[in-house]
Amino acid sequence: MTEPSSNVHDNPFRKLRYLIIDDFESFRLSMRQMLRTFGAEHIEVANNGAAAIQRCTYEHFDVVLCDYNLGEGKNGQHILEELRHKKLLKRASLFLMVTAETSKEMVMGAREYQPDAYLTKPINRAMLEKRLGSLVEQRRTLLPINRAIDLENYPEAITLCLQSIGKFPRYRTWLMKTLADLYQRVGDLSHAGKIYADVLAQRDLSWARLGKGKVLLADQRYDEAVAVLKALVADHPDYMEGYDLLAEALAQQGRLIPAQKTLQKATELSPNALLRQKQLATVAQANQDMETASSAWRKTVQLGAHSIHDNADHYLSLGTTLCELSDGDTSDVGKAYAEDARSTLARMEKRFADTPDVTTRSRLLQTRLHAGQGDLGAAQSCLDSLSDALADVDSLSADTGLEYARTLFRVGKDTDAKSLLGKLAQRFENDGDIIQKIENLLDEPVGFRQRMQARDLNKDGIKAFEAGNLDGAATAFREALAIVPSHTALNLNLVQVLMKQYSGDRQRKALLTDCQNLLATLSTLPQQHRQYARYQALHKKLEALRS
């Protein structure tokens, strides 16, 4: 008896191009044979991730059947990740993840990049034809929409979606989700929000709740976005995109500690998503939680071994957090952190030997490692070895320049560091992120533990001031400034306290002299500094008090 699929006049399987990726030849042959019985004619194979990426770079495939475990090198998740990142997989193409492994960690990790389906080994002909057949049918029906999106012709894609909703009720959910996403891409938040609201009025669907959160976030309605997204992850704790968007919303509010906790929860559930580990590391570092940051950077580096997102900056960031943890700690623990950092930098230099600035930034960090362990001779020697690479400071990248300044501060060359930062500020005056980093470094050109001590004292001073304890506030701020004397906000905090003390006792003229001296240290504060307006206001107030 002839197979049904081969008798169909317009066989949907026949014209498609297939790629089978598996490290076992027997499985590749078996899958090829099954596809041939469906009428498939154009079938290619690859036995590893590198070969698969190369094939997809030069050929278009409509259907990719990829095993998750491929031995050494890239796994199925890495392949899907890279194909998506390089846009080698069109929206109309189908990617089916094939696996004998069903661990939650694997499924959660692979799901991050949204394969069209999972097929669990062993695979028989009936199962493959049923799953693939429905996907191919959907692909054929929705092909015009996906082609328009691939061409970034979003108005045309929107029109096609609207026309298809009534014609293809079977695919209504896909069409509504795609339509809302298209409206957001063109900046039409109103129509996108209405679609999400209409869908949620009928069914409680996770993607619609996430979409509602996206619209609220884009509309800068942060409190509402946070409320929606908190409820989403509470009701659907495995919905990873919800955690990512919630963390983003919290960060937009400046609530970095709750953002970090949200990302930590997400990485516990799905530990193999490199970009989320990187985001956790970045937020933890901003929170000065170096233990969490180093752990997340370490995981980012590990996950990057076969990932398209592998980057020398990940190694440098791991080395930096380890350097911070080792700084000033010559115990066995501190020495272990320092040695771990050196090992990380050695691996980076070998792996990214052809990447510009890598060796220079690595040696700058090694200089700080030596200084942090009390070996100033080795630190100076390491820095001297970079004299040629650092000779032309005007040609340094922003990142390398900042690393150089940070290193100069660490070896006691504060004047040189400030001069360098001044030049960087002039070169990058229109780059807000770099200016912010320069300001932060000028404020706190010290190690991690000293920064933490100064910040705790600053908090104590603020609490004392708010409680009306002016003497306690002044003492705390002075102690903090003994650690970071150039910190702009701390200097202004102390000025504000001293002025308040003087207002309560006009006989204490010395307080005004102290204020004048403190403000004089900030006389070169640039107008673009975020504390400049406050500096000016306090300067005028001082002049009024002295008159």
Automatic annotation (TrEMBL):
The keyword Phosphoprotein applies. Gene3D superfamilies: 3.40.50.2300, Tetratricopeptide repeat domain. Residues 17-136 form the Response regulatory domain. The modification 4-aspartylphosphate is found at residue 67. Keywords: Phosphoprotein. The keyword Nuclease does not apply. Pfam families: Response_reg, TPR_19. This is Tetratricopeptide repeat-containing protein. It comes from Marinobacter mobilis.
